[in-house]
Amino acid sequence: MAASPTLRRRRLARQLLRLREEAGLTAKQAAAEAKKRAPEKSWFEAKITRIETRKILRVRDADLQVLLDVYGVTDTDEREAYRKLAREAAKSGWWFGYRDILGAGTYIDLETEASRIRTYQVQHLPGLLQTEGYARAMIRAGGVTDEEEVDRRVEVRMMRQHILARADAPRLWAIVDETAFRKLPSEVAADQIRHLLAVQRPSLRIQVLPDAVGPHAGMDGSFVILDFPDDPSAVYAEQTGGSGLLVEDPEQITLYETVLDHVQAAALSVEDSRAWIQHQLDQLD
């Protein structure tokens, strides 16, 4: 799969902000300097801010070069590196053909390049661990009745799982509430549980959070923490209606990591979780 344009946009915006701050300029001052160098262009404080906050998704090469001039970036190789980053950020993600059902596709785009994925799920199993039958049942349960749309949603969910087969597959650590197992559709339960047992390996671990633990830190809902080799982490918090909130504030991410630590400590160990999952399969068989 192609690289993540969303991750590239995050990186470009962060680096342009850093360059401006290192140049000792406010956004208003940077816009004024850019206007001097390119008077034919529209340069305002809001434009600088929109670039740095990724409200402008595609930074034009001409605008980028003006900003590099303003920020004093003169080295040819360094300038070309920024231009290449901007070109990559302007590309479409692999999921673009499914944008009618995925919307912005931000989470899936970031998932493509994550080096570690840590997730806590309450009502359903993580998408990366779902069988086709389970995914189809969940999508229908979510109110999708058009079979063509169901097929396309299942297709994209299965495509996401390709990252787990890569040589540089991300490490995946999933903590799943017992609630999700109780809600397994009977017609797909056995196949889905067998799949959970089969996919586990040192880089892919599953823990079960049993009902017996009572109230716990993760009761506010499901979320995923995405870690990257050279970029700040991000959190995707699920919301009602299937939408999600992308969290990038470092302090908020730390809070989610703390919640995950508490949930992980309350859950069964990896070994005990595997035995617990096997017991569910034995009961079905």
TrEMBL record:
<dbReference type="InterPro" id="IPR043917">
    <property type="entry name" value="DUF5753"/>
</dbReference>
<feature type="domain" description="DUF5753">
    <location>
        <begin position="106"/>
        <end position="279"/>
    </location>
</feature>
<dbReference type="Pfam" id="PF19054">
    <property type="entry name" value="DUF5753"/>
</dbReference>
<dbReference type="Pfam" id="PF13560">
    <property type="entry name" value="HTH_31"/>
</dbReference>
<protein>
    <submittedName>
        <fullName>Transcriptional regulator with XRE-family HTH domain</fullName>
    </submittedName>
</protein>
